[in-house]
Amino acid sequence: MMHAIRTSAARRPVSAARRPAGWRGGVFYWPLALPFLLGAALLAIAVSVLLLAGVLSYAFARLGIGPSAAAAVLLGSLLGSSVNIPVGRLRSTVMTVEPYVSAFGIRYFVPVLRSRATIIAVNVGGALVPVGLSAYLIAHDRLGWWALAAVAIVAVAVHAVARPVRGLGIAVPALLPGLFAVLTAVVLHPAALAGLAYVGGTLGTLVGADLANLGKVRRLGAPVASIGGAGTFDGVFLAGIVALLFASLL
After folding, report:
1. Rounded to two decimals, what is the model's pTM?
2. What are the residue boundaries of the structural domains of the chain, listed by start?
3. 3-state secondary structure at position 123
4. Radius of gyration for the chain, computed over Cα atoms and rounded to the nearest angstrom
């Protein structure tokens, strides 16, 4: 969720000698270290190929969207993960961190800058894309109160396993949100398993990990808190894929 960024008081750019691989400047940077980013890209491509080949067409028929649109959502989530849109600022402490921070076995990229304030941002791939698709699914499948219940249950479960990581922010185990979402959907409304699992998994992760922990931003020393960014992006991204795969099997 939160990326520690160091920038000078005069906001000078980081010199090329100190600029880690993956840095793009401003609010553009990949949330994961290269090996994990490549793994996510290969997973998205593999699922997209299966979608276009019709292997997972049943699951997406239950979601109410076509294979091409589904593939576009997956790839859009991955590409959009590098874009963080600033929406606010909080006074915070200064903290120096390494370019990469590990949590739950995954390495996250942390842009190296200096700052005396925490910038609140929204990640495009990890927040805006899944929120948009979730809104469509809630309306299309008429999930209503089922969606609200699923999001609340998954948010509580994710909040229980999320933990603060200094310099990174809030991190969650990558696979758990998707599993929580599928189990919740099976219990609440199995007839709408695919849509409910996606909505519960993505929105529940954003609420339980990011929004519920915004008050901890200052204490974690992370100058940029990106909702749906590193720390929770992998959980949100995989929640959608896990929901899709389980929906195709159950």
Report:
1. 0.76
2. 2-249
3. strand
4. 18
